[in-house]
């Protein structure tokens, strides 16, 4: 048995093991980045922005309490987008809105 | 003949070999490859483009005016819609234009308050299984706009919201 150069051998092992762990971290980072980005993309951003713009339009035109418009938006949302929405003018004069498509449950109070 | 000198070198060699293989495997599997399932990332760019185009069309040029989209949908002006929409979605940096196909459908609640729809405008070449996305915009039609569709008389002429849904694809 030759027991020379044990330090060098041990350092070699340690460095190799560290390299394996670093490779593992790099491997995970790509996956984590991808799922996070997909999560951001799957958020119904366009739906909510569009609904918000429409409700603001009602507000500026003074038709936010119009029952016909509430039905138009609510029924079409349910039928075409598969989402439940609700909005009203609160007692303090702000606009409350709610959007739920089964995955995203979104509430907002717009200060006007 | 068995000789016990240099055993540590043998162990080291085997261990180093395994470590190298494992590291190489991890490094190779890190590489991202665009597969069939990842096509939706390209779809999302097209979806963003379509949504942005409709949002721009639904924005009035100045305060108190009606937006181009409200004018087009409210007065059944398909030419106005087509020109404006195609300018937005086909714009690129430089002179070369994209060539987008689209099919715009309006969903509304008719005079008996049931949900109904009709094709508002479509590109001349019909849709034939291209990779398409669906974008939409709520269009607010105030009372003073005279909604008059001869082909769809059940579209109400009062304050209402209709849904404009556009199927968009690259031709």
Shape of chain B: elongated
The strand count of chain B comes to 4
Main pleated sheet of chain A: 3 strands, antiparallel
Q: Nearest-angstrom radius of gyration of chain A? A: 28 Å
Task: Label the structural class of chain B.
Answer: alpha+beta
Separate helix tally of chain A: 3
Order of helices and strands of chain B: HHHHEEEE
Would you identify the regions of chain B where 5 or more consecutive residues have pLDDT less than 50? Answer: none
Radius of gyration of chain B: 29 Å
Structure explained in plain terms:
- The complex is a heterodimer of chains A (about 110) and B (about 170).
- With about 110 residues, chain A is of the alpha+beta class.
- Chain A has two domains: about 1-40; about 45-110.
- In chain A, about 60% of the residues lie in helices and about 15% in strands.
- Chain A has helices spanning about 5-40, 45-60, 65-80, and strands spanning about 85-90, 95-100, 105-110.
- In chain A, strand 1 and strand 2 form a beta hairpin.
- The mean pLDDT of chain A is about 90.
- By secondary structure, chain B is of the alpha+beta class.
- Chain B has one domain (about 40-170).
- Chain B is built from four helices and four strands.
- In chain B, helix 2 (about 40-55) crosses helix 4 (about 80-90) and helix 3 (about 70-75) runs antiparallel to helix 4.
- The radius of gyration of chain B is 29 Å and the shape is elongated.
- Chain B starts with 6 loop residues before the first helix and ends with a strand.
- The model of chain B has no long low-confidence stretch (mean pLDDT about 85).
């Amino acid at each position: 048995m030759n027991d020379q150069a044990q330090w060098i051998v041990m350092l070699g092992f340690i460095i190799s093991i560290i390299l394996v762990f670093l490779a593992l971290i790099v491997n995970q980072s790509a996956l984590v980045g991808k799922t996070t980005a997909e999560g951001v993309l799957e958020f119904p951003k366009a739906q909510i922005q569009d609904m918000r713009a429409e409700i603001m339009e009602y507000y500026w035109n003074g038709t936010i309490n119009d029952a016909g418009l509430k039905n138009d938006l609510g029924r079409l949302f349910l039928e075409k987008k598969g989402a439940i929405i609700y909005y009203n003018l609160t007692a303090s004069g702000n606009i409350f809105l709610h959007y739920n498509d089964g995955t995203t449950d979104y509430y907002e109070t717009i200060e006007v | 003949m068995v000789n016990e000198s240099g055993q540590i070198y043998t162990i080291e060699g085997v261990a180093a070999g395994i470590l190298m293989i494992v590291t190489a495997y991890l490094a190779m599997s890190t590489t991202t490859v665009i597969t069939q399932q990842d096509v939706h990332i390209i779809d999302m760019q097209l979806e963003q483009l379509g949504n942005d185009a409709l949002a721009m069309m639904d924005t009035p040029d100045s305060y108190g005016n009606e937006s181009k989209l409200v004018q087009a949908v409210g007065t059944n002006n398909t030419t106005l819609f087509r020109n404006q929409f195609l300018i937005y979605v086909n714009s690129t940096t430089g002179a070369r234009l994209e060539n987008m196909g689209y099919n715009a459908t309006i969903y509304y609640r008719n005079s008996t308050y049931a949900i109904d729809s009709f094709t508002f405008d479509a590109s001349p070449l019909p849709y034939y299984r291209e990779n398409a996305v669906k974008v939409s915009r709520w269009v607010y039609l105030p009372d003073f706009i005279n909604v008059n569709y001869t082909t769809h008389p059940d579209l109400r002429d009062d304050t209402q919201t209709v849904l404009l849904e556009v199927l968009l694809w690259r031709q």
